[in-house]
Amino acid sequence: MSNESPVINSTILLIYTGGTIGMVKDPETGALRSFDFDELLLRIPEIKLLDHEIDTISFEHPIDSSDMKIEDYLQIAALIETYYDQYDGFVILHGSDTMSYTASALSFMLENLKKPIIFTGSQLPIGDLRTDAKENLITSIQLAGLKDRGRSVINEVGLYFEYKLYRANRTTKINAEHFEAFASLNYPALAESGVHLSINHPALFIPNRRKKLRVHKKLDQRIVVIKMFPGLTPEVFDAMISAESLKGIILETYGSGNTTTAEWFITKIKECIKNNIPVVNVTQCSGGSVAMGQYETSVQLKRIGVINGKDITTEAALGKMMHLLSNLEDRERFKQMFETSLRGEMS
Ligand code: ASP
Fold first, then answer.
1. Averaged pLDDT score across all residues of the chain
2. In this structure, which of 58, 117, 164, 340 has its CB flanked by the most CB atoms within 10 Å?
């Protein structure tokens, strides 16, 4: 780790998509709803003290992140593409509930990034006395503005929450109550905020500086995520995979990649693979990795061609599958690419 003092004069674009950070309590219903973004900035006058030039842009209708759709991912990607050359860094304000999903998908959509894209939000609205929004927003802006000899220090999609910056496609929301809402159990934090901003340089993604930013705008959402559970019956499993348009399956397995060895199950998975529907094995544990073949309960999966998701999160597996399905026809190549780390999402 090295301590950095925030560098002055970076240009930052703040993109507000919605989420608790910009919500207020509706006096009639008591429920939280989004409010005007300008008001959000009025509530953090400290932003003016930062030595960065900050511009803001907001979704026309800010949303709770539970309502995020693929079209919204495309809108964020399009904004980044449009303003990529104009700004040194981008901060995306987003609800925490599905932040790891959106940020993971964006990491695959944005190839050859050479600038920071920092997702952040908060557990309490900005107007709340005990809010975590101010620290999250201010430090995210500082991280997005960090430069070393004229170049961005962070060159990837990050997620900043409660004093830690993570590689976004390594994160999962783990707590609905604590300010420390996210974890990255298979990869260290990229930076920590204390008295100083400490940057974990060896953990940062190394960009290929010769290649230009490529924005992938196609995502195939005809995917199902199936969590294994004791008691899963053939009928229920059939129903889960019966959509005619189904293009891919993410199987959340037990421990290091294990499932039932029941013949009906293996036969059905084999059929899917034969029908050109890739099946990816990810673990339902928050930490650790799939190791197909370690137990008898995963030997068969390996043999029939199930893809090894290694230590990828379900959120990142989903984004990676959406991205690869729409870019690769050849299923052998799909397997190869899925098992390769594209944006540092797996070890
Ligand atoms: N429901 C909110 C959202 O994800 C929660 C949050 O922002 O933390 O938009």
1. 92
2. 117
